[in-house]
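Render this sequence as a predicted structure.
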Amino acid sequence: MKNKIKYIGLLTCLFLVAVSGCNKDWLTPTPLSIYSPENTFVDKAGFTSALAACAKNLRDEYFGDGSPIISENIFSDISVEGTDDKSGPAQNMDMQIRPDAQLNNPDFNRIGWYWDQEWVGIRLANTIISRIPKATAVSDADKNILLGQAYFFRAFDYYRLTSQFGDVPCPLTEISSAKVDFATVKRDVILTKMKADLEFAVQNVPWVTDKGAVNRGACYHLLAKIDLALGLFDDAITATSAVINNGTFKIVTGRFGVDAANATKNVTWDLHRPDNKAAAANTETLFLVTDRTGSAGSYLFGTTGTQGTRIMRQACPGISIGTNILTPSGKAGASASGGLEIDIMNLYGRGIGRCRSTPYEYKDIWDDAKDLRHDSVSGNYMYMENVRYYAPALKTAADTAYGLRMRLYAGTKLLCTDTLRSWYPWPHYKLYVPDLDNNPMQGGHSDWYVFRLAETYLLRAEAYIWKGDFASATADINVVRTRAKASAYTTSQVTSINAVLDERARELYWEEPRKTELTRIAYIFAKTGKPAPNGKTYSLANFSTDNYFYDRLMDKNIFYKKNFVTPHGDMFKISPYHVLWPIPQAAILGNSGGRINQNIGYSGAELNVPALDKIPE
């Protein structure tokens, strides 16, 4: 395993350099290295190692300080960037999101990470795909499995790219020398090719594989997303039904795993315990990425190779920041030390409110007090009013607030000086990842869901809604709702895409790439001309100036709707053209022999040429 890990690191470096078109010396074969592609792509183990590199590349979206998934969340209805003591974080998108701006830094945004790393993933998948036919030591059956799994990773990255950036280049073969003449290809052309590849994958990849490896259920799930993106709703129903009806995967409804004997917890808690995500009893997992403490902890990666999720630091409120939270007597009610008798920092983590959820996410979508996903009695969902004043100095000063529950007001006096960053509820069952590396906790190592059967049901429900079959959509949504003990919907409550988007927000927080899915849905409205829940119809002809993505954010995300201003003086603002992210200027300038188009609304779009309606050979 150690040798394979070394090769993964080397290969990733090679691909990063090749994609940027920099030093050609990196592309020169090095016969002295036993980890060169010629020595690795010869047997099943070598190709499996390369597929692990694809998974590792995908995994990093969810891990580390300022993880990339935050950018997906803040370009949506569920979150905003809560950092409010400096300029730079993505809040005023009109000012900060530009092709030549800082696009890959935790203190700004991670748009550039997606652009870079998705191309790394595509390049690696292309190399695997190009070399499989030449691997004489691999059986035909194994070749088809490996090829299908490589198709999955390539399709995954192209699905994300085309929902984040729209029309993009589309190389499909291994690139062994610097290439600077890429051309932009139409989004639907790329997705149609990815659909064909996944249709091969679902015929050849097994239903059951090792945890963390691609299986047929994951391939069908991704195929359904691409079918939806193409407006092929019947095909999406066929793909999702293949997973739901196969029997390999089942919605988990009973208690299981590490805390199963704890009567105060429930199935929602169990589903999101780090040790349970890859457990054999978890029949809901379609595809996950692995990250565990210890050299023998991971099937794919051996040692962890990450900073951990850091999810509590990113998404939990900044309880301990400065003197943001006061007692009724005006003293600091919280402390960065975490407290001694009341160790808040290790109960809930030392949050900084970077990914601050919106009232839509933590209040508006919740319509049943019995819903386990929003239950504060069991501790699944936490409110600031559940947290106790814990600063040690309060006890020393004999302040009577010590140990009492925090309050937002004392009469009319506001006791939180920064409600943006330090006062909002959070889904503790999702965000609590015990952290053995940091004290106070920030969010430790954990496997992480990428695709889960609950989402498969919601994808099928969405396809039914596009077809006007609201009864079938209601039945699928209710599978997810009733597992969480929420009351089943009636058909009269499921009449538009809002029902699916709300349920996705309840079920898939910090799992789904929310911006990607909203943009995909905006494309469907523009492509089909179907009326949106707001009564409007949209068109591809003016997609970047009038789209459902923007209108939904203006309806659901109060920070952007009201142009709230942070304590630092930065405005929350977003525009219709942010439905697509900017192509980084460096990528366009480096492509000196061709033209990569810029998205409408960003500087440089005036130089665009017609996107290709055929993928270049």
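Summary. Confidence is low (pLDDT under 50) at residues 1-35, 294-304. The longest strand covers residues 285-289.
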